[in-house]
Write a structure and sequence with these properties.
Low-confidence stretches of chain A: none
Largest interface: A-B, 46 and 45 residues
Oligomer: homodimer
Largest sheet of chain A: 7 strands, mixed
Structural class of chain A: alpha/beta
């Protein structure tokens, strides 16, 4: 397939690479063969799908999101973390023992990810194997790629929301056998305080033996950091606690938040190649704090972005890009200009190529990359002959799901699947 | 007229007042006669407009916005304040010497305010009298209420963007003669560094003699605060500089930003009844800082909200409400919980009744208040029998212009006016 449009991506974070009315050639396996200013002679007989003056951008990667919290989007954000969990989040997650309820909410969740142009995600499900399998099947049906994590948790949470290390590990091993190109399981201990040392050890052993990836939460707020220090007295820091269980980069690892990461924990993240998943909307909504992302990038830590729905209040990665920049600008203001803020192209890179790296060659238009793309019609924003540089800026700050005309994942166009 | 819907407003900031399927009776003069759970017998013969299960909320008040920067929405937010002004903002404002250009942009601006449900605003125009009159006329034509300010500036800015105290005051006096119920002029010295002491004195004298209101910028960022201190050595603080010119509450006054206001300046704000217009999207985008709004409210200072387009990147007050809460939660996190954050109802109050007070009895559904209202169809968000408390929360966090079915200002329904 050959597509023609205004092609915009971030092969490097420093700037947008922009090709006016360029061509992307996609092989049968969904990988990009090449990107061209004018079409080489060898392709003259191949039909071209022309998207006119639309923008063609990489689809987004949401690297931290809780699917079972979807019904609670926008709710209870006046509450502090603990009542938010106990009155709203845990009771909602309990409902996913009911597979019919799970189907109703998960269908809407996957539909909205599609709508917002998020073609890949790393998802927390619940402790419920049947509902988690269903969520994986819905991604597969939609043609979207995801790491879907059954949550493992066996302490400091309601009885109805606990499983055992045995339950969780059996599930992970089964799901690993059934994984597809698009949808794979991911080891998902909720966070240190919700998992006994035995559970964490067993999951760490499974990571080592299977190579399965890991996702969890790290240093989200100060009370949590102090709590973990009291639980894991031999660990040098919160991150080291995961590390001692083999859950910190021994296999590909996503750690959400890291608002209070520095020193030894930062070095461990970097040396172990762990991804920080920055969730600025969530960190603002839950009054967690401001993760020092510019500092992480300067130190060579890998960073991706996540909505963290429903602590994050919106499923669009455009919003997360905006907040990531704004939070880094508040750091800049508070440091009186000492720490430079994220640029738009850097934040876009985090939401596409940087997060996409967790899936392989994803998130950019370069030879060998999977063709994950959004066709954006920004004509209502482009009423005054804006340059393409300005059009991508305006789309990121002003655009929404209405503007996306076509969505591609792994080279295939994904049509809307009705959610009910 | 009688309207039936789920009526939601904030007579006091502490909580939403919610009336399921209630009635609002509006007099011929556009004022609310009463709000009822069930319709009194005296109205049985009056026809009722039934909005079914929709939400009926007060329309929004945007108390700080730069109309001529509308074309630059979403642009150049990687730039710091000075290059942002010099490379983008000032050159754009210069274009408003061309009345045809002004009409094209101002029509779109007024149309989008309408679209976003902002029925009242306090607007900065440019130095150009003809374009400023046109903007006022467009508000009048649309039926929307606004304070429209010709900007006065005569130093520290490009030559093409200066006027004289004489120019500005003549314009203000003329416009004052022509003011209507809906659209009125407002004295708009850009800010202290852009106006000579003579200009500020003359505008202050005009305020005193005419009673016209005032709007300007205050303590937006630290360099600016230091600059003003060096320009106005006899003033005890930036706010006192305005005060000495009679531009600080001697007539109704809006001061945008106040990120670095405390001590004497805060006392002056409170004692003089000056409104702080909090613009959290702008303060984040321009790396200005985080205005301590909870502190202002605790101290009895009046607070309204503004988009500050185009330093703010979006014209919707829903977004500003979200950011106001989030910024106050970041204060909360940084104070380790000492300063409580804004609740949703408080932030909604700031965007409706608190800002509305600048226009008189506006921004709530109470007897004697002008009927400024939005009819919101949130049915796509209400797929699981949410309570009305949760529906208003979800609409504020998740809704957008698509959801607004009807818009009322001053008792009249305002239909869409095409912008081209």
């Amino acid at each position: 397939m050959i597509y023609r449009a205004n092609i915009i991506c971030t092969p490097t974070p420093e700037r947008f690479k922009i090709l006016e009315h360029g061509y992307v050639v996609v092989n049968d396996d969904g990988r990009i063969q090449g990107v061209y200013e004018s079409l080489p002679d060898s392709f003259v007989s191949t039909p071209v799908t022309d998207f006119g003056d639309c923008l063609l951008i990489p689809a987004f990667c949401d690297m931290h999101v809780h699917a079972p919290q979807y019904r609670n989007l926008g709710l209870a954000l006046d509450e502090e973390l603990l009542p938010w969990l106990q009155k709203y989040t845990f009771p909602e997650e309990m409902k996913f023992s009911d597979i019919r309820y799970a189907e109703r909410i998960y269908r809407r969740f996957v539909h909205e990810l599609w709508m917002q142009g998020t073609m890949r995600s790393a998802v927390f499900a619940t402790i419920h194997p049947q509902a988690t399998d269903l969520l994986a099947a819905l991604f597969e049906e939609a043609g979207m790629s995801a790491y879907v994590g059954l949550v493992a948790m066996n302490r400091n949470c309601p009885d109805q929301l606990t499983n055992t290390a045995e339950d969780a590990c059996t599930y992970y091993q089964d799901a690993f056998q059934r994984q597809t190109d698009l949808v794979k399981p991911i080891l998902t201990p909720r966070f240190i305080p919700a998992c006994t040392p035995d559970m964490l050890s067993r999951i760490g052993q499974l990571a080592a033996s299977s190579g399965m990836p890991v996702q969890s939460h790290l240093s989200e707020n100060l009370s949590e950091v102090e709590w973990v220090q009291s639980l894991e007295v031999e660990a040098s820091c919160y991150g080291d606690a995961y590390n001692r269980y083999g859950l910190f980069g021994q296999t590909p690892t996503l750690m959400a938040h890291c608002c209070y990461t520095d020193g030894e924990e930062l070095r461990l993240l970097r040396d172990n190649g762990v991804f920080v998943v920055h969730c600025p909307t969530s960190n603002s909504n839950l009054a967690s704090g401001m993760a020092p992302i510019r500092h992480f990038l300067n130190e060579g830590v890998k960073v991706a972005l996540g909505t963290d729905v429903s602590a994050g209040h919106y499923l669009s990665m455009l919003r997360v890009i905006q907040y990531a920049i704004q939070i880094s600008k508040l750091h800049y203001a508070q440091s009186r200009g000492k720490v430079k803020y994220l640029s738009l192209s850097e934040a876009f890179y985090l939401a596409t190529k940087s997060g996409g790296a967790f899936f392989g060659k994803v998130g950019s238009f370069e030879p060998g990359y999977m063709f994950d793309a959004l066709v954006v019609d920004d004509s209502y924003l482009n009423y005054d002959n804006y340059s393409l540089e300005h059009r991508i800026e305006r789309y990121i700050y002003l655009g929404d799901d209405r503007d996306i005309r076509h969505r591609f994942c792994n080279g295939k166009e994904l049509k809307e699947i009705c959610y009910e």
